[in-house]
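FIELD: query
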Amino acid sequence: MATVLVTSVGSLVGQNVLDAIAPYRNQLRLLGTNSLADAVSNFRCDACFLAPPVEQVNAWRAHLALLLQAEAINLVIPGRDDDVIALASWLEEEPEYLGRFLVGSVSAARAFQDKVHCARFAAESRLPFAPTVASGSPQAVLEALALYDRFADLSAAPLIAKPRAGNGSHGVRLLLKRSDVSTLAMRPGYAIQPYLDPHPKLEQFVQEAHDIGVPLWFEIPERALYGAQVLIDPLGQLAGTFCFRAEMSGGRPSLLERDDSPDLAALALAYGQAFAAAGWRGPCNIQAKCDPALGLLAIETNGRFSGGTSARSALGFDEVGMVLQQWLGTALAPRAAAESKRVIKQLKDRVLNEAAAQQLARLGAWRK
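FIELD: result
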């Protein structure tokens, strides 16, 4: 029986992997690591281990290396963006882990990790990508202001500034005025892009934010984020693709709908081939917006399973199952085809096993 480890299993990605892998639990042993003892998903595994934060590279590697040997782990699935780059860097230094880490080259991982690197990767590969300015210099101010002027007549918030690393809309800012652009473009660490295909009520949302008092939960829903999930097998072949439209709330998908449009399929194929050629192996996620003037443009990418993994699985794209077959050689029974093109994602209550959390915190390990 194969043993699979999910790092940062308490993350949203970890939850999605656990949901998608559920039908195969009787065919494998599932382990997790997490830096927090009281994450409820820790205890959905067969065993979980308290790990150092991935930022403590040497301690994190040493901990994982012990687990790889002691638990005879066959496959490590990263649960966060930071885990992706950490595993790719480790694999480059110690190639003996090839086939055991669900990652590829460091150069590809950097494009996934950093939105500015991704824009440069897309330009070098001649792939469509949203115009992107790297903040942190006087030149960045000039470039960002030019971008602002280009899109100012199209939206109440012409530009969007995202942390170069990270996901889930954390730290993202809408730039409403030229003074906003000038100020933020001087701060390092941001990728500045046009805010493509804004919500039709964006101006109303912005006005409400300027009324007396700041809304405690101010958010702008995303009605049309396009995406593609591509699987690249261990030999570098494109082994599966699923294209979709997502509606987002608070940076998380609330609805996911299959999209079979030729333009999105072509974008997925082009990016999948480019990342495969750059040495990536495993999942590859492309997010895109459709602008009336510029067409379909990628806005960011990542190299892992995502918050939509379980939804895609429910719609018939069994990406976790395919990975198990491709990377472990495990024969799995096919899952039933979906009868719908849409999945509605809702919150689910899970009771925390307090005794298990205390044991994990005290001993560093918990087993079912």
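FIELD: remark
The longest helix spans residues 262-277.
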